[in-house]
Protein: SDR family NAD(P)-dependent oxidoreductase
Organism: Microtetraspora glauca
Amino acid sequence: MKIALVTGAGRGIGREIARQLAEQGMTVFAGVRDESHAPEGTRPVLLDVTDAAVAANAAKTIGEEFGRLDVLVNNAAVCGDFGVSPADATGEHMRTTYEVSVFGVVTVTHAMIPLLRASGEGRIVNMTTRLASVALTSAREGLNAEWRMLAYNSAKSALNALTVLYANELSESGILVNAVDPGHCATDLTGHTGTRMAAEGAAVAVRMATLTGDGPTGTFSSEEGQLPW
Ligand SMILES: NC(=O)c1ccc[n+]([C@@H]2O[C@H](COP(=O)([O-])OP(=O)(O)OC[C@H]3O[C@@H](n4cnc5c(N)ncnc54)[C@H](OP(=O)(O)O)[C@@H]3O)[C@@H](O)[C@H]2O)c1
């Protein structure tokens, strides 16, 4: 049986990812800040991604029982500058956003790497967005022309870079690391502006979480295929 951990699993897309992985028969630890928010069929584990001691404790809980972790989905994020133009964004907007969406990912990943290595076929899925694409932003294409958040978009560009660095570093341990864009979903993060349901957004993450050993690593994709960096 595969063991999975999903951060930010109490609501939105993360909750759906946790639910869908559990439906596939995995033992899923739902990383939550309120244990009552974990979806049915999962096991709540307290996890504020900004707290290294809490992340270490979550790793200890999983490690003591299973000795390994097969799937880590870094889903938790905040958008500290929703509706703020790049010209109005401040260092504080950046700090708030990066604290969870970048530093939080490193905090949790760092805590879980020994357990992922112990799996021998670990999978890391980083929840990113096409808004992170410097190429699409430079071309002022599609959504990237409309949604111009300085903190959120650039935090996800940093996450994309982390994805490639981790992919290269961890390939010798059989760990595949990929970044996925769930598409524009109706969740709290988007003020429910998205056209897709959270369950639809979760599907691409579940696919990357369940890759076989010959699957890709260091990629950036959505349900429609590869995205440009
Ligand atoms: N929705 C979209 O259209 C869309 C598009 C592209 C990418 N994404 C990405 O998909 C992921 C999920 O987005 P979403 O729309 O489902 O967001 P959401 O509904 O706003 O949910 C965010 C989740 O992150 C958790 N979180 C926030 N700060 C945290 C912290 N310090 N420690 C632990 N958990 C924390 C929240 O937990 P609490 O309940 O405890 O606050 C919540 O579970 C994010 O990475 C987002 O950037 C979303």
The pocket of NAP is lined by residues 7-8, 10-14, 33, 47-50, 75-78, 100, 104, 127, 129, 181-182, 184-185, 187-190, 194 (CB under 6 Å). The radius of gyration is 16 Å. The domain at 3-226 is CATH 3.40.50.720 (Rossmann fold).
